Amino acid sequence: MSARPAIVALTILLLPTAGLAQVYEPMLRTEVGGVSLKVPVLLATTAESVGRFPVDRYGAELDGGVAVGPRLRLGLLAQSSDLVEGAFVSFEYEHDIVGGIAVGRPELGGEDLPSGAPLTTIPRKILLSSSFSDQLHLVLGLSTSQNGLGLLANAGAAGWEPFGTRFDDPRAADRVLRAAVGFGPTTDQALFFTLAGDYVVDDDIREAGDTAFQTSLRVEVGKGGDTTAGLTVAYRNNRGDFDRAIDAALVDLYLGTEQRLGRLRLKAGAEVVSLLGVASVAPTTEHPNQTIRQLGAAVKSSLRYGPVSAHLDFFYGSGDSDSSDDLQTAFRADPSFGFGLILFRQVLQAQSGRAQATASDPQLVGQAAPGLERFPNRGSATNAIAVFPRLGVEPIDGLEIQGGPMFAFSAATLADPLNTRIAGGTPRNALDGEPGRYLGTELDLAIRYTSYLADSELVVGLEGGVFLPGSAFDAQQQLGTVPAGRAILQYRL
After folding, report:
1. Residue 200's closest CA among 149, 119, 242, 143?
2. Which of 152, 250, 336, 476 is the most exposed place for a label (fewest CB within 10 A)?
3. Which stretch of 113-127, 162-176, 347-361 has the lowest confidence by average pLDDT?
């Protein structure tokens, strides 16, 4: 069995959303006894600050300091076609030795506030894979999980790529204990099938104390080619405290293409996700069980000609202005699916995180409504129809400048749980105002320099932006202009 087809097959199975080819190759690499060894190392840090702004009806403000988030990620990749006759074997280990916010975590009460993650260590992958006859592939172990653009399942590893600045900072990852079998690629269309069973270790749906299992079938066409398409159908069984449960089916459709014509290059991807099921995680007396009916969609596209590029991203996430009825319709993208610098990652994350504290204050509500721990959006793009056009230029090799406006509307009226409850069910926003449907305009600009030396990669970047709130934040207490900035330093060797 040749090594090259096996490597391609394993890449198809483990990385279903492989993007642009990377110049980076681990500096620490060798071959011992027919085993190829690579040891990738990532050293990175961010320093981020956002202007103070009100987050609740009482005028409490998010701290306006600087948050510093270091990260040290170590990995090991071992591959061989000589260890087992007729098989290509691969072992992958990846560990965030240090991750989270070291300095500048907010002191304001609330859950999952911006820059609130403490320093921690997270094993990402301990994974054994093998390919037989270039057609049968087996995977077993701890793995990150991603579908398509990462709209719902996201490995938290994308970050910056050439002419692809997304103003995100992926750190967390969907992690599962996975047993999977893959078949393919077969036929001239490079048809590929993957059947997987997962025990969910961590993702943005699972809460502390939950036990979650999921099974999935993925069918992919054209993997490894210029144009790919994939359909994933999955079922999730999620059980939490007090017999609270989520039983949901997922349908995820993805289409991606990368085309070159001379100096012109197009890269585009589109993903649509539908969630259908039943949940009892936020029961009320009238509705102990709720029907899940959620829809999300995204497009990320880039067109480059020489040193000039144009980008157009789109996001849709269904919203829910009444959390006490018999429907759960609020779709939330994965927190690592970045969309802008301020609106989702700062303003809405802070207000929804603060809402968990105010709506559970026993001096105000007597008894908190169940399921409030699931209200904070953790920085996810949600309840929005947003478009984000940008222009970019590379004046010299390695130096990229990109920026543009994001325009966002709410898919459903913003509804703070405490203020809406006090108003008798009429939607009220976090500042206790009657919200309109325009979330606002965000203006973002990024400057990044990338340098390669002896296979190592150094990235230095600055991002800045300003958010101009729209009618969705109207209230007697005004939410003013919100500025934010971030410095990024990343070194891979």
Report:
1. 143
2. 476
3. 162-176
Band (301; pLDDT cuts 50, 70, 90): very high
pLDDT tens profile 248-282: 999 999 999 999 988 899 999 999 999 999 998 77
317-367 pLDDT, tens per residue?
Answer: 999 888 778 889 999 999 988 899 999 999 999 999 888 788 766 555 555
Question: What's the mean pLDDT when you consider all of the chain?
Answer: 87
CA quadruple 426, 432, 434, 440: dihedral sign: negative
Surface-to-core class of residue 304, CB atoms within 10 Å of its CB (0-12 exposed, 13-18 middle, 19+ buried)? buried
Q: Which two tokens stand for residue 468?
A: 């101009």
Query: Angle at CA 76, nearest 5°, toward 212 and 203?
Result: 20
Report pLDDT for 189: 75
Place of tokens 């999955």: 234
Ordered structural domains, the chain, with CATH:
3-456+464-492 (2.40.160.100)
